[in-house]
Amino acid sequence: MSTTGPARPNTRKLLIRTWGCQMNVYDSGRMADILAPLGYAPTESAEEADMVILNTCHIREKASEKVFSDLGRLRETKKARAAEGRETVIAVAGCVAQAEGAEITARAPWVDIVLGPQTYHRLPEMVARASRAAGAVIETDFPAEDKFDHLPEARGPQGPVAFLTIQEGCDKFCSFCVVPYTRGAEFSRPAAAILAEARQLAANGAREIALLGQNVNAWAGASPDGNSWRLARLLRELAEIPGVARLRYTTSHPRDMDDDLIAAHGEIPALMPYLHLPVQSGSDRVLAAMNRGHKADLYLRLADRLREVRPDIALTSDFIVGHPGETAKDFEDTMRLVEQVGFAGAYSFKYSARPGTPAAAQPGAVAEAEKDTRLQALQALLRQQQDDFNRACVGRVVDVLITGTGRHPGQVAGRSPWLQPVHAPLAHGGAAPVGAVVPMQLRATHPNSLSATMVLPEESAAA
Ligand code: 5AD
Ligand code: SF4
Questions:
Q1: DSSP state string for 270-312
Q2: Per-domain residue ranges for the chain?
Q3: Where are the beta strands (DSSP E) in 322-364?
Q4: Can you say how many angstroms the Cα of residue 441 is from the centroid of all Cα atoms in its chain?
Q5: Residue 330: what are its φ and ψ, rounded to 5°?
Q6: What positions does the domain Radical SAM core occupy (predicted)?
Q7: Residue 141 pLDDT more than 70?
C-alpha cells in the first residue's frame, strides 16, 4: 500500500463528535483532513481513539452542558487507556471552546487542547505540543490571517452532497446570540477560492453543494474581476461548474436578502426551491428588543417576493419564544406571522440566557412554564404546516438526488428539492447510481421521509 504525504503508519485513531450547525459538520471534516497526514484514521469508538475532538456548539445552554457531561465520561476512558499504557489526547473545539476556554480547562483539567474555530489549521502543531506539554494548550485568538488558506484541499472521494463554507462570523449582534462573540466579525472568503473548492468538490463527485455561513447571504467577497461580488453573482458562477446540479445556501438573515438574490431564485435552475430564513419572532416590539433590524412586515414581503419568482419555494425558519419582555400579545403576533407565511419546517426554541449577551441583562424575564406553553402552541402549528406541506407533495413527480441505498434491500435513498428524505424501490430496469438525479413520483408521507417510485425514461418521455 502506498500513502501520500509524510510516511507515517496509519496506526492512530481519531474520534470527532460534532454538535450544532452545518458549519461545525464542515469544520469537523476539515479537521479530519488536517490530521489524516499525521496518521489519524477515523473511529466511532472512544475506547479505541488516540485522539478525541469534541466540536461543540454554544448557542443554547443545553448544548454546552452536554459537552461537560461528555468530558466527564471521557475522563474515565482516558484513565482506563492510561492504565493500559495508551495515551489519549482530548481536544475541545468549536464555539464552547471559543467562549469558555479557561473554564473548560478549570472544570476539566484532563482536556489537552482547547481550540477556537479560527485556529483549526494549527491543529497538527497543537497535537505535537500537547504530547510534550504538562498543561493544556489553548488557542482561541481571532488571528487576522485567513484560516482557510492553511487548510488542505478537501479530499476525495466525495459523496454527492457537499458543504462549502463561504462566510464566517456575524456583525449583527442579535440581543440573545453568542455567535458574534464566539465566531467573531463577518469574514467572506474570496470568490476565486470558493470557485476553486467547488470545482474540486464537483470533480470528486459532489452534485449538490450547500454554501455555509452564519450569515451566508451577507457574503461579499473579492472577485476575480477586482470588484466585490454579492451572493447572487457567486451562485450564478457556481451554477456554471460542470457536475454541479444543485445549490443551496444557509443560514440567511432577512436584512441581507437583496433584490438580486431574490431574482436569482427565479433565474438559476440549480438553485433549489428551498430557503431557511430565520425570523425569530412575529412581533415588532420583540424584534426591536432582539436587535434584529427588521420588522415583521419585511419578512412577509420577502416571502411574497420569493414566491412570485419561485412559486414552489419552501420556506423554513427559526423561532425563539419567551425572549425577555415578550408578552402574550407579542406571542400571538408570532403565531399570526406563521399562519400568514406557511412554513415547510422550522426550528423553535425557548429563550435561554447566554452569559455576556445583551438580552441576559434585559428586564421582563418570561416564566419557564409560560415559555413551555407558548413553545408547545407554536410547535403544534409548525408541525401541522410541515405535515400539510409534505402531504401536498404526494402525487407530484420531482427530481430526487440519489444519496445511497435505503434501509431495506433493493431500496434507494435520496433527497427532494425541498430537502425531504425520499426512499424508493429500485425499479426493474431502472438504474439509480449514487449522485444521479432521477425523476420520482412521490407516493406517501412517513414520519421522517417520503416514499416514492422511480419514473422510468419511457414514462417520463410519454408524460
Ligand atoms: N436562546 C434560544 N434560542 C437561541 N438561538 C440562538 N440563541 C438562542 C438563545 N439564547 C436560536 C435562534 C437561532 C438558532 C440557531 O438558535 O433561533 O436562529
Ligand atoms: Fe446570531 Fe443574529 Fe448573527 Fe444570526 S444574525 S448569528 S442570530 S447575531
A1: TB-SEEE---B-S-HHHHHHTT-SS-HHHHHHHHHHHHHH-TT
A2: 12-139, 156-272, 307-393, 394-462
A3: 345-350
A4: 29
A5: -60, -40
A6: 156-388
A7: no
Same fold for the pair 156-272 and 307-393: yes
Taking only the tens place, the pLDDT of each residue in 98-132 is: 877 778 888 888 999 998 877 777 787 777 777 66
Which atom of ligand 2 is nearest to 253's Cα? Answer: 5
Residue ranges around ligand 2 (CB below 6 Å): 170, 172-174, 177, 179-180, 214-215, 253
Query: Model pTM?
Result: 0.80
> Which ligand has the minimum distance to the alpha carbon of residue 213?
2
| CATH 3.90.550.10 is the classification of domain 307-393 | no
| Crossing angle of helices 296-309 and 259-267, rounded to 10° | 30
pLDDT digits (tens, 9 = 90+) for 268-318: 999 999 999 999 999 999 999 999 999 999 999 999 999 999 999 999 999
DSSP string computed for 97-108:
HHHHHHHHHHH-
Query: Which homologous superfamily does the CATH classification assign to the domain defined by 394-462?
Result: Nucleic acid-binding proteins (2.40.50.140)
Pick the atom of ligand 2 nearest to 318's CA.
Answer: 7
CA of 160 relative to ligand 2 center, distance in Å: 29
